[in-house]
Amino acid sequence: MKRSPMTLRGAEMLRAELKRLKSADRPRIIKAIAEARSHGDLSENAEYHAAREQQGFIEGRIMEIESRLAAAEIIDIASRPATGKVVFGATVELEDQDEGTAVTYQIVGEDEADIRGGRISITSPIARADRQSPGRGRGGGRSRQNAKLRDRLGAVRLATRAARSYARGTDYPAHFL
User: Fold this and answer.
1) pTM of the full predicted structure?
2) Residue 174 has what DSSP assignment?
3) What is the CATH number of the domain that holds 21?
């Protein structure tokens, strides 16, 4: 089984969703199915079919979350030393060299990526390009290195302005909490 990295925050979010699905949503759907069954003929009972469909979605999501948590390599990024390298859990400031605009992202696992929240997946093209730019070792790139990212619109030249990882006891930027 392939292990996928996940932060403590991401694992906690999935556990909370799993708990909600099992303790609130699943019993609610079971009651809805029982109530729909009491209405009589199931072949023409739209409420019954809708509740069964909803039950299938919930059970599928429960199985998906359980398998993702089982395959997760949960990494406490606060306990990692501050190296200044672009690695999992690092906060990276990128600058578009053509336009001069800068954005800040934290590199996280696939399940916790949220571009609007400032978190990108470690498998995203931006994170891969930033970690594997020319002149970088396997340990991740360093600040002020350049990366090229190609998409359907052409090439975008990026420069890593800063790569910060947080040691235990330090505060995370507010937009990552």
Assistant:
1) 0.69
2) G
3) 1.10.287.180
